[in-house]
Predict the structure.
Amino acid sequence: MFTDQNTGEKHIADVYTLAGLTLEIQHSHLDPKERRAREDFCKNMLWVVDGSRLKGDRKKILGWREALTEIVQGSKRTNLFLLSDANELFPRD
C-alpha cells in the first residue's frame, strides 16, 4: 500500500514492479473518477481488463480484434491487446 503524502489518500494495486510500473487487473465495473484517481496517483500504470464480464463483450472484442495491436510472443498470439484509450472501445459501465 502506498500513501499520498499530500492528501493522505491510500492506494493498493495488484502489482507494483521494481521498475516503478503499477499493474491493475480489472474484472468489474470501475467508476471513471476512481480510474482517473488511480492513474493520477500511480502515473506509470498498465491496466489489464477482463473483456468477457458481460454476455455480449466477447463478441464485441472479437469484432475489434483486427483494429487493435495484439501482443505477440515469438510467433505465438497471446490474445492480449494494446489500447491507448479504453473509452474508444469499452462501454461506460
Summary: The beta strands are 2-3, 10-11, 15-16, 22-26, 45-49, 69-73, 76-82. The radius of gyration is 15 Å. The first strand starts at residue 2 and ends at 3. The mean pLDDT is 81.
